[in-house]
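[Meeting: bench + compute handoff]

Bench side (C.D.) handed over the final construct sequence. Compute side (W.E.) agreed to return the predicted structure before the next meeting so the bench team could plan truncations. Sequence as handed over:
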Amino acid sequence: MMRRVTLPSLLVATLAVSPLRRAVVTPAPSRTVEVSGLAYHPADLEVAQGDTIIWINRDIVPHTATSDISPRAIDTGTLAAGDSSRYVAGRAGVYRYTCTFHPTMQGRLVVRAAPTGAQKQS
């Protein structure tokens, strides 16, 4: 006697034999630069391509984080007290930035190149 195999029973048998594999997506790390006391903390930051940098203004006066190269790679716009801005690190390199309201405030972001074959787009 020949037994008829239906699609549902075949699916159950297949799932029982082969474990399900889930794709694991790891979000890119994020780093925070706090603006307080008329300074960036940390003033020097090293990240990888694709990482997110968040500037948070903890001062009572407005600030910016604006790079000095054109076109501006980093430009948070005006951050009022308590505001924040996000930037995803794109091209590898060294980016110096200042506050347009307080030019003595200076910071430096170093973006490391992603390993070959794993380079993230931005």
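W.E. noted at the follow-up: The chain has a mean pLDDT of 83. C.D. will use this when planning the next construct.
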